[in-house]
Design brief:
Blueprint: E1 3-5, H1 7-14, E2 25-27, E3 32-34, E4 50-53, E5 62-64, E6 73-80, E7 101-110, H2 111-115, E8 133-135, E9 146-155, H3 174-180, E10 188-195, H4 213-219
Parallel strand pairs: 4-10
Antiparallel strand pairs: 1-2, 3-5, 6-7, 6-9, 7-8, 9-10
Length: about 230
């Protein structure tokens, strides 16, 4: 399967990537992810690198993969490797000390469901209510600018009795999780970018865009960030 990998920034930041590392990528065809964008002001379909206002994707998306196999089961992971970085995408900065952050883990998803209606989590779903949900969908929650989010689908060898996922969502050992359940590389993947806004431009309130004034001077010259151009000079 052809893989379209977003290596340009990652290689310059973290060096060579091991074959078993998860990175921001999209398979061909990509994992189909569709958000119900609040207000319906723009498409909720995720194309590799799609931008979404953070406030517009508070509920879990529908996830489909038409190539899923009948009778097979799959596990879904959504992770943030940019968490708490000294900077923000698209600047070439290393991952923050909280990375990776787990945002969504669901196991034992039937292939037939992924092929047809797609998997959708109820907004009120709790891990204790639905055994397949190990981490209920946690919407992007970034204080400034933007983070990338990778969504990965793994094929299971059989139905799995998963152990409870505990501990903080930060510094999630996704490699150990995959090793425990013998997952190889993802069979399908996609990624998107969530953008922080002080107020949605569709809310009717004054829109201030990506207001980073509270953090900008503190972080200036850190993490290879470039200062804004002074357009007052000739």
């Amino acid at each position: 399967m052809k893989i379209i990998r977003t290596l340009l920034l990652l290689l310059s930041v973290v060096g060579p990537v091991r074959a078993d590392d998860l990175i921001y990528e999209a398979t061909d065809p990509p994992l189909e992810i569709t958000f119900a964008v609040e207000g319906g002001h723009y498409s909720g379909n995720v194309h590799p690198g799609s931008l979404f206002f953070q406030s517009d994707i508070s509920h879990a998306p529908v996830v489909r993969w038409p190539e899923a196999e009948t009778g097979a089961f799959y596990t879904l992971l959504m992770l943030d490797f940019d968490g708490n970085a000294n900077g923000s995408w698209p600047d070439a900065v290393a991952s923050g000390e909280n990375s990776p952050i787990r945002h969504w883990i669901v196991g034992n998803i039937p292939g037939d469901q992924l092929r047809t209606t797609g998997y959708i989590e109820s907004p009120s779903a709790k891990a204790s209510d639905q055994p397949g949900i190990l981490q209920p969908y946690r919407a992007p929650h970034i204080p400034v600018v933007s983070d990338r989010y990778g969504v990965y689908l793994f094929k299971q060898s059989s139905l799995i009795e998963f152990a409870e996922v505990t501990g903080p969502i930060t510094n999630f050992d996704e490699a150990a999780f995959r090793k425990k359940y013998e997952f190889s590389g993802p069979v399908a993947a996609n990624y998107f970018i969530a953008v922080y806004t002080s107020d949605s431009p569709f809310s009717g309130k004054p829109f201030h865009g990506n207001d980073v004034t509270a953090a900008w001077h503190k972080d200036l010259d850190k993490g290879k960030l470039r200062p804004a151009l002074d357009r007052s000079k000739p």
